[in-house]
Amino acid sequence: MVVLTQGGPNPEILxxxxxxxxxxxxxIEERPESKRLILRRKARRTGWPKALGQLATMAVSKFGKPLxxxxxxxxxxxxxxxxxxxxxxxxxxxxxANGPKFRQLLSELxxxxxxxxxxxxxxxxxxxxxxxxxxxFHAGINPAYRGQHGGYWARVMDDEExxxxxxxxxxxxxxxxxxxxxxxxxxxxxxxxxxxxLLLTAAGTGIAVRGVGAALSGKLRRQKTTKQRSRQWxxxxxxxxxxxxxxxxxx
Length: 251
Known about the structure:
Elements: E1 2-5, H1 9-21, E2 26-30, H2 35-46, H3 48-64, H4 69-79, E3 90-94, H5 100-109, E4 114-117, H6 124-128, E5 134-138, E6 146-147, H7 150-156, E7 164-169, E8 179-184, H8 196-203, H9 205-217, E9 232-233, H10 238-248
Parallel strand pairs: 1-2, 1-4, 2-3, 4-5, 6-9
Antiparallel strand pairs: 5-7, 7-8
Helix pairs in contact: 1-8, 1-9, 2-3, 4-8
C-alpha cells in the first residue's frame, strides 16, 4: 500500500499505525504549496480581506502550538501513538501529486490501496489514472463538516456529538466520497484549534487501519450516516476566531 502526504507529526501518527499492520507500506511525500499560492487562491474565491484574515488564523495556529505542548503530550500518551517519522519506511519525495511523476510512481509501485492524509486535492485526471481504491483520512465528520477544522466547527455549532474523524473513499469533490468509518470523541476543556487535529488523528488510527484492511480484502462497504446537511468549512478569520474564543470559550 501507498500513503500520500505532505508530512508532519499528525500524518506520521497514521503512517506508524498503518505500518504496524501493513509492513510493506510506502510513503510518497509531496512538497507543500507555498503560502503565497494558497493566499492568492483564497483571495480569488473569497476576496482579499477574508483571505488575509484566514491566513492570520493559520499563522496564529502554527505559532500557538508550542503553548499547547503539554496537552499534546497528554493526547500522545493517552492514545499510545507515535508522531516521529519511522526511518525504516521507504519515502519518495515529489513536487505534486497532480504531476506526471506521481502517476509514474503509482504505475511502478502498483499499490493495492492508496491512502491520503494531509495532501493536495487530487484532480479528476489524477484520480482517473489511479487503478486502486483511494481512501482519505479527514479530521471531521462527513458530510456535515467537510473541508477544514471539522472538530472546531462542530464545537462552534454546538454539535459536539459530531466531534470526530472520517475515513472515506475519494471522489472529485472535497470530502464528498462515500463514508467508510467514523469515530467520535469528546474534547477536553484544555483542547483548542492547536490540538483538535492531533486529538482526532490519534483517535482515528483504528478507523484508518480498518479502512485499509477492508480495501485490501475487497470488502469495502459504504456506512450508513445520519442525515446531515453537507457543508464545506474553511479556516475562520482571525477576528471571528478571537470573538468566538472570548465570547464562548471555544479556541
